[in-house]
Design brief:
By secondary structure, the chain is an all-alpha fold. It has one domain: Amino acid/polyamine transporter I (Up-down Bundle), CATH 1.20.1740. Helices cover 78% and strands 0% of the residues. It contains 20 helices and no strands. α9 packs across α12.
């Protein structure tokens, strides 16, 4: 039952920041940001991404943390409690449910990619000597189409994640991030310096910071929005859960700004570590998910100290993956533990086990594997999960969080919860009430029309009933 377990708290502001930055900094920054920037033309995508992080994501991040700290429960429990306190419908708890379920779904494919990283870390120790484009592509293809090895890697990655979460906030989460996050920043800095000295750093700077807005379209803008939410771990229950472990003396706006700044810095640094290598060896920066697993090994196999550099890179990627994975598992574990009083270790194993089985579908859903022929809306199993969570659940969840806190929680309650100057509060409140929901809604509606409704109208005969609209040039 609710309240059966005493709610834990972070031992210090520093450990909270490390954990929250660890939640935000993950595969989204080091794996996803570089290849999406590469696919979308570089600088223009980076600018749009950063604009979404600070104008849309940061206000929602502050709102999520405030909900968590005020509720002192799991996302579902916190939403229920605050809605009741504010005299609002219990239906708002659906935001909490969406976050917990969304985090569970994301973890089910995120852990598969985390398993790939662990497998490639082992490969990196023995070196990528002799890898050319054909060999690298074939090696990755053989790995992801194998019915056994990706599942084993997926299991090992989840076992690490479960082991950390099962030990609780101070015994597991804090101890893990206190070691892993400083290690991540040191490793990333070393890799950036190495790329700057030995590879095409000028080409990377030009690519990342010289925008070509002609390469932007509705799809890349939605990708930037989804990536901003994905990289900040917004609307997945993680931030709200971590906020529930905050004490009253911690400054939420200042902490949120530091989290968003660190998250963006890591994404940019990842680009500065990866793209100099890509350009120095004449590789394609827009190689989708293969940028890390098929493109970079070619360079690691050719460069001096490639074994060391490749091993450091994949170890860095593994650290980033684990720190985010524990934040994705924590909301569901927190909710079940809080509502049932079942021992945390058992809950972590139960939820982790369910994640493993759902994730195995993603591992087997790669083209050429057991379930590779299954396509839904033209997407494989992992692609469908990614699209639903990244492009639908997270933006909509963020939009409703902004609407709830901005319009259905009293202004006085938020003034009491947040330590901000009057001017800063007015700016945040305006961004939360108007800019965040309108920006998210406009982009979301535009892309849904462009990718779904337009074809639906055309193929169902509704065009005959909507002649003026459908006859217009598309």
């Amino acid at each position: 039952m609710a309240g059966a377990v005493q709610h834990a708290h972070w031992s210090s502001r520093w450990t909270f920041l490390l954990a929250a930055v660890g939640s935000a900094v993950g595969l989204g920054n080091i794996w996803k940001f570089p290849y999406e920037a590469g696919e979308s033309g570089g600088g223009a995508f980076v600018l749009v991404y950063l604009a979404f992080v600070f104008a849309v994501g940061l206000p929602v991040l502050i709102a999520e943390l405030s909900i968590g700290r005020r509720g002192q429960l799991s996302p579902i429990g916190s939403m229920e409690k605050i809605a009741k306190d504010e005299g609002r419908s219990k239906g708002w708890s659906l935001i909490g449910w969406s976050g917990v379920v969304g985090g569970f779904v994301v973890l089910s494919f995120y852990s598969v990619v985390g398993g790939w990283v662990l497998a490639y870390l082992i490969k990196a120790f023995s070196g990528f000597g002799g890898y050319d484009a054909a060999m690298s592509t074939a090696t990755f293809g053989e790995f992801i189409t194998d019915p056994i090895n990706p599942v084993i890697s997926h299991f090992v990655f989840l076992a690490i994640t479960i082991g950390i979460v099962a030990r609780g906030v101070q015994g597991g989460l804090e101890k893990a991030v206190t070691f892993l996050m400083p290690a991540l920043f040191v490793l990333l800095l070393v890799l950036v310096i190495y790329s700057g000295v030995t590879a095409d750093f000028r080409g990377a700077i030009n690519f990342l910071f010289n925008p070509d807005f002609s390469k932007l379209n509705l799809n890349t803008i939605l990708q930037a929005l989804g990536l901003a939410f994905f990289s900040l771990s917004l609307a997945l229950g993680s931030i709200m859960t971590y906020g529930s472990y905050l004490t009253r003396d911690m400054n939420i706006p200042r902490s949120a700004a530091m989290i968003a700044g660190a998250d963006s810095a890591v994404a940019i640094m990842a680009g500065l570590a990866i793209f100099p290598i890509v350009f120095a060896y004449g590789l394609n920066p827009g190689q989708s998910v293969g940028l890390v697993f098929t493109t970079l090994p070619i360079a690691f196999g050719q460069m001096q100290f490639g074994v060391v550099f490749g091993s450091l890179f994949f170890f860095l990627l593994a650290v980033a993956a684990v720190t985010s994975a524990i934040s994705l598992l924590e909301p569901a574990v927190s909710y079940i533990e809080e509502r049932t009083g079942i021992d945390r270790k058992k809950v972590a194993i139960y939820i982790g086990g369910a994640t493993f089985f759902l994730g195995t579908l993603s591992a087997w859903g790669q083209s050429g594997n057991i379930l590779g022929d299954i396509k839904i809306l033209g997407l494989d199993i992992m692609g469908l999960k990614d699209y639903i969570t990244n492009n639908i659940m997270m933006p909509l969840g963020g939009m409703f969080i902004a609407i709830f806190v901005g319009w259905f929680v009293s202004r006085k309650s938020m003034l009491d919860e947040l330590t901000m100057s009057d001017t800063s509060f007015k700016i945040w409140y305006f961004l939360l009430r108007f800019v965040s929901p309108i920006a998210i809604g406009a982009v979301f509606i535009s892309i849904i029309w462009d990718t779904v409704l337009r074809d639906l109208v055309a193929c169902t005969g509704l065009g005959d009933l909507m002649g003026v609209i459908c006859a217009a040039p598309m």
